[in-house]
Design goal:
Blueprint lengths: L6 H11 L5 H12 L3 H12 L2 H6 L1 H17 L1
Helix pairs in contact: 1-2
């Protein structure tokens, strides 16, 4: 495994840094900018949250998303 994130992985994190007016706008951007189905996007995103390379690349975004994920898991 290399030390750098792939362009696709970087794109996923960049998309998550943005603010979204609606889920539909985000899903449209996922399809248009990354060429991914939303389900696949969220699979990749979830894997990135556990990847130390992603944490090194964008610690603010990764830590924020980890907190959200952990809060959702705690609600279940």
């Amino acid at each position: 495994m290399s030390d750098a994130l792939s362009p696709r992985e970087q794109g996923v994190l960049a998309l998550e840094r943005r603010g979204w007016a609606s889920a539909g706008a985000k899903e449209r951007a996922v399809r248009e900018e990354l060429g991914l189905a939303p389900v696949r996007y969220y699979q990749l995103l979830n894997a990135l949250l556990d990847d130390p390379r992603a944490l090194a690349h964008d610690p603010v975004t990764v830590n924020r998303l980890r907190r959200v994920r952990d809060a959702r898991r705690a609600e279940r």
